[in-house]
Amino acid sequence: MKIKPLGDYVLIEPEKEKEKTKGGILLPDTAEKGRPEKGKVIAVGPGKTNSQGKVVPLEVKKGDIVLFTKYGPTEIKTVDDKKEYLIAKQDDILAIVE
User: Fold this and answer.
1) Which of 14, 21, 52, 64 is 20–30 Å from 4 (CA)?
2) What are the residues facing 77 on neighbouring strands?
3) pLDDT tens digit string along 15-64?
4) CA–CA distance, 69 with 38 (Å, rounded to integer)
């Protein structure tokens, strides 16, 4: 399934959390893990329409690694490949990691 965001929405593939702590402790699958705050941009919408009716392009692009607000994006899961993605407004993206 192909997902194409509309307006100023961005499709993000969240970064998988490490299953090992800095101290070397392995975390089991049953351990409660926090929601990711970093991911890779998979697709972007055309941009936001301003008050004059012109489309303002987004600052992020496909392939960017971004930091985003923890609870801003909406989780979605594809039926075909059972992958989990996040869809967020550009306003929920805090920074691009360079």
Assistant:
1) 52
2) 84
3) 876 666 667 777 665 555 556 689 999 999 999 999 999 999 999 999 99
4) 9
Structure tokens at 43: 């697709």
In CATH terms, the superfamily for domain 9-16+34-97 is GroES chaperonin (2.30.33.40)
d(CA 1, CA 77): 10
Cα separations in angstroms, 13 against 73, 75, 80: 11, 10, 16
- Three-state SS across 19-63? CECCCCCECCCCCCCCCCCEEEEEEECCCEECCCCCEECCCCCCC
What is the mean pLDDT of the segment spanning 68-76?
A: 89
Cβ count near 54 (within 10 Å): 9
Q: What does DSSP assign to residue 58?
A: P
